[in-house]
Write a structure and sequence with these properties.
The protein has one domain: 3-Layer(aba) Sandwich (Protocatechuate 4,5-dioxygenase, Chain B), CATH 3.40.830. The protein has 241 residues and is α/β, with parallel strands linked by helices. Helices cover 43% and strands 19% of the residues. The chain has a five-stranded mixed sheet with strand order 5-2-6-1-7. The protein has a three-stranded antiparallel sheet with strand order 8-10-9. Strands 3-4 form a two-stranded antiparallel sheet. Helix 6 runs antiparallel to helix 7 and helix 7 runs antiparallel to helix 8. It contains nine helices and ten strands. The longest helix has 20 residues.
């Protein structure tokens, strides 16, 4: 699991997540990326176009697999040229291509709902059955706090910073470390502790269906406040799943 804010804010955590992942799995032939900012009602999508242009080269799509999953789950197409570009995927693409240059990409956008678990299970099973050597990534930032986000339940200043760091973000992180996909979605939605909890829940279920048994490890956790203090800030975490 890795964050997706601008390079100057969450790039360090994202880079650590991919460095740890590549150390564990050096040369997979497929990276499955669950991303996109989606509310509880979706839509659920899969990217079926040829690939993604990145600063480090073209990242090719695993098109036959994407098309099969689209039909099996009745998913909508992830837009090739969306009206509102979504950074939940964009920041990850150069990392994927840099750390896994031989891999194709399977990218899905999932709702912040329990349906994400079903999608993750289906994807993990199909990837296993097609005998792809895969790694799985879930993209989300954590609590968005302050006047910019109209969310200040414990007020401003150090009280808000401490609450986000030690309670709200931590509640979501603990759900991920416990591999509790249902709690991941519930905490993310009810506590506003993650902007893309469905992506993380789908990733957890996909890994389980694929046959993964690794124990989650928290690699990094900090706030944009630590990089640039201000009244509004966001949490970031890198977790090896």
């Amino acid at each position: 699991m890795g964050p997706h804010a601008g390079w100057s804010f969450s790039g360090d955590a994202a880079g650590k997540a991919y460095a740890w992942l590549s150390a564990a799995r050096a040369e997979p032939d497929l990276v499955v990326l669950f991303g996109s900012h989606r509310g509880p009602y979706g839509p659920n999508t899969v990217f079926c176009a040829d690939g993604w242009e990145t600063p480090v080269g073209l990242l090719k799509t695993a098109r036959p697999l994407a098309i099969a999953i689209r039909g099996g789950l009745d998913l909508e197409d992830e837009p090739v040229a969306p009206a509102h570009p979504d950074n939940a995927v964009e920041l990850h693409l150069p990392f994927v291509h840099h750390f896994f240059p031989k891999a194709e990409l399977l990218m899905l956008g999932v709702a912040a709902a329990d349906e994400a678990q079903r999608i993750g299970e289906h994807v993990g099973r199909i990837v296993r059955e097609t005998k792809r050597d895969a790694v799985f990534v879930g993209s989300t930032d954590l609590t968005h706090y302050g006047p910019n986000y109209a969310f200040e339940p414990v007020g401003s200043g150090e009280a808000g910073v401490s609450w986000v760091r030690d309670q709200n973000d931590r509640g979501f992180i603990d759900a991920v470390l416990d591999r509790d996909a249902a709690r991941v979605v519930r905490h993310g939605v009810e506590h506003q502790s993650a902007c893309c909890p469905g992506a993380v829940a789908a990733t957890l279920r996909a890994i389980e269906a694929y046959g993964g048994k690794a124990q989650p490890k928290l690699v990094d956790h900090y706030l944009s406040y630590d990089v640039q203090p201000g009244p509004s800030f966001v949490g970031y975490a890198a977790i090896l799943l």
